[in-house]
Design a protein that fits this description.
The complex is a heterodimer. Chain A is α/β, with parallel strands linked by helices. Chain A has helices at residues 13-23, 37-42, 62-72, 87-95, 108-139, 142-145, 151-165, 180-189, 208-216, 233-236, 252-264, 290-296, 301-308, 324-338, 348-356, 362-376, 406-420, 425-432, 436-444; strands at residues 4-9, 29-34, 50-54, 77-82, 100-103, 170-174, 198-202, 217-218, 230-231, 241-245, 266-268, 275-277, 281-286, 310-314, 345-346, 381-382. Chain B is an all-alpha fold. Chain B is elongated and about 50 Å long. Classes of the chains: A alpha/beta, B mainly alpha. Chain A binds chain B through residues 12-15, 17-18, 21-22, 25, 83, 104-106, 108-109, and chain B through 13-14, 17-19, 24, 27-28, 31-32, 35, 60-61, 63-65, 67-68.
Chain lengths: 448, 115
């Protein structure tokens, strides 16, 4: 059977055979020619990839046949091939879903050929996107991505299962590196919204003055530099999931705007008038204790309750010691697979060393340690020497060497992070969960 | 050098897509001849009835085949007939164009039969 089926609906026998023979020069195409609309509609259940449709059939008008195709085989692409040069008819048919309108003239053969090639390319891209989507969905099968055997993880599976079955907002809390985004993705890719976008926004990484336009978008000319319309993250996540990370870092003015959008389930782009309805699931995450922030007056209580939804707390890795080795072995296995390396085993001393460490950077840090250990190893067994804890990962080390003020400790920590992350202020601010402006201020005063 | 008259048809388009398949070329020529014969009969019938709208429809119908056969001067006549306004019809011109069209089509068929 040919891989690409084309139905030609053409009552002019000569012209129909001409098109058929021309297209059959491509051996990938399986072509059938129908002289009447009735005969074609009777065979439409075969769902061809493409239909070339003569507008004036003896028994049906092209618009009626097009409507039938849209009903019975919506994936089929329809190319109208007509002797009429009537622009308004062509426009109407394109509006009703025709892919192209080709006039029967000297160029129609090459135009038809090119149009079908274009359809095939689009179809191939669409198939690739669908395949990739399936791969992503499989990748985020939560029992494969959220690893562990502790009670905490078993409870987490239950919560995720509950979240995926409904459209409830979810708030994920936990220290940095505990896997908040992994949980958000697991919920999205296991829910009915899985084929729609997952849009992640790190609120702490976007400068305050840009946050509004990033989230809500803007119209052309809304402000200096708004040369074109821009869709915001809320709109991008339509029918999908919007993940707002570090939600606790939003200032009060922004909190009011986000609250309004969440309450009304609609937004207006900056400088715009049109109201855009929102259909999305919201997942928020923060390393901060939002209740405490509410008590301190830093976070709006009404927004807190709107966002709370199903709360999921991810404990630090040090509180689920049972999972450390399971995770370490999983990361080692993944790293070996991704790098075409043979499987590697852990010596008992290595396991003990891994268990003794507090992991202030949580799972993210454990993964980095294991990846590096595999690289440093002899390729067969991980030894304690292969396990290298970075200096910044051991904040307790410098406590014993010298007594300092809290402010001095802060500077030591920030400096070591800046060194580690090659002076990337935004990343360091994110890692240390401090405002970027705080770091800039300290830099201006030569404190760091 | 003396100007050569425009040929009445040109089989280059059909030859190109036939990719050397002479049976396809032959069957298409036969199909064209019989189709045009039918159209000519219909035109004669509706000329007697002075049903110019029907004639225009038939002429419009035959246009794609005439273009494929490389009958450029004939397709130009068809275009002129298609563009004529039936509300304010210039009957002598219409008849003249129709006569020319029928003549061309008949000559093309005769030439094709002799190939």
């Amino acid at each position: 059977m040919s891989s690409f089926s084309i139905f030609i609906v053409e009552d002019d026998k000569f012209y129909g055979e001409y098109l058929k023979h021309n297209l059959s020069l491509n051996p990938d195409y399986g072509i059938r020619h129908f002289l009447t609309g009735k005969e074609f509609i009777e065979n439409l259940h075969e769902k061809p990839d493409v239909v070339t449709l003569d507008y004036n059939l003896p028994d049906y008008n092209g618009a009626v046949v097009l409507k039938k195709i849209r009903q019975i085989s919506p994936e089929t692409q329809v190319i109208i091939v007509s002797g009429q040069k009537d622009i308004s008819t062509a426009l109407d048919l394109m509006k009703d879903g025709a892919y192209d309108y080709i006039v029967k003239d000297q160029d129609s053969r090459s135009r038809l050929w090119n149009t079908i090639l274009r359809i095939r390319e689009n179809q191939s891209l669409k198939n690739q996107v669908e395949k990739l989507q399936e791969e992503v969905i499989r990748k985020y099968d939560f029992e494969k991505t959220i690893i562990g055997n502790s009670q905490v993880i078993r409870n987490l599976y239950t919560l995720i299962e509950r979240a995926v079955k409904t459209n409830i907002n979810v708030s994920v809390t936990g220290e940095t590196g505990t896997g908040k985004e992994v949980v958000a993705k697991a919920i999205h890719y296991n829910s009915v919204r899985r084929k729609k976008p997952f849009v992640a926004v790190n609120m702490a990484a976007i400068p305050h003055d840009l946050l509004e336009s990033e989230l809500f978008g803007y119209e052309k000319g809304a402000f200096t530099g708004a040369f074109t319309r821009k869709t915001g993250k809320f709109e991008e996540a339509t029918e999908g999931t919007l993940f707002l990370d570090e939600i606790g870092d939003m200032d009060m003015a922004m909190q009011a705007k986000v609250l309004r959008v969440i309450q009304e389930r609609e937004l207006v782009r900056i400088g715009g008038k049109e109201t855009i309805a929102l259909d999305l699931r919201l997942i928020v995450a923060t390393h901060k204790d939002l209740k405490e922030e509410v008590a301190k007056g830093n976070f709006r209580q009404d927004l807190f309750f709107r966002l709370l939804g199903l709360p999921i707390h991810l404990p630090p890795l040090r509180d689920r010691a049972n999972d450390i080795l399971i995770l370490a072995k999983h990361f080692a296995e993944m790293f070996c697979k991704e790098n075409n390396l043979p499987p590697i085993v852990f010596s008992s001393e290595t396991s003990e060393k891994l268990l003794r460490y507090p992991y202030p950077g949580n799972i993210r840090e454990l993964k980095a340690i294991v990846d590096l250990a595999v690289v440093m190893s002899n390729g067969k067994m991980l030894t304690p020497e292969d396990i290298i804890f970075s200096q910044t990962s051991q904040p307790t080390d410098f406590l014993s060497t010298k007594e300092m003020t809290l402010e001095e400790y802060d500077r030591v920590i920030i400096k070591s992070y800046l060194e580690k992350y090659k002076d990337d202020m935004v990343l360091v601010a994110e890692k240390l969960a401090v405002g970027k402006s705080t770091l800039y201020r300290m830099r201006q005063k030569n404190l760091i | 050098m003396k100007n050569q008259p425009d040929p009445l048809f040109n089989l280059q388009e059909l030859q190109t897509i036939s990719a050397g398949d002479s049976s396809f070329l032959d069957s298409m020529i036969q199909l064209y001849i019989s189709q045009i014969e039918g159209f000519l009969l219909d035109i004669s019938h509706f000329t007697l009835l002075k049903d110019y709208a029907k004639i225009k429809t038939i002429v419009h119908k035959m246009k794609p085949s005439v273009i494929v056969m490389g009958a450029t001067s004939t397709s130009e006549i068809i275009l002129r007939i298609e563009e004529m306004d039936l509300e304010r019809l210039d009957e002598p011109l219409f008849s003249e164009l129709l006569l020319k069209l029928k003549d061309n089509l008949q000559k093309i068929n005769d030439l094709l039969r002799s190939l």
